[in-house]
Design goal:
By secondary structure, the chain is mainly alpha-helical. Helix content is 81%, strand content 0%. It is globular, with a radius of gyration of 13 Å. The model has no long low-confidence stretch (mean pLDDT 86).
Length: 83
């Protein structure tokens, strides 16, 4: 959803670089409710997980941008045991 819809829409208004960053920030934010409800985090783990998901999302957006296909991002997300 994020690479296929959100990123593509945002990219229509701002540069690729800023689109990747904004999409990744939004991707991190959608994970917060689940963290608070299902898996309480210490502050350090919260910051670590936030950074990890932000960076992985940036990578997946970049892969989508270069490949013009959602399949690599879908595959990597499925193989990633952390998210």
């Amino acid at each position: 959803m994020f690479r296929g819809f959100v990123y593509t829409k945002i990219k229509g208004f701002i540069s690729v670089k800023y689109s990747i960053v904004l999409t990744s920030l939004l991707f991190v934010l959608i994970h917060y409710p689940g963290w608070f409800i299902f898996a309480p985090h210490s502050l350090l783990n919260f910051l670590k997980d936030t950074l990890y998901i932000f960076l992985i999302s940036c990578l997946w957006c970049w892969i989508y941008e270069k490949s013009k296909s959602l399949y690599p991002s879908i595959l990597f997300h499925g193989l990633n045991k952390e998210i």
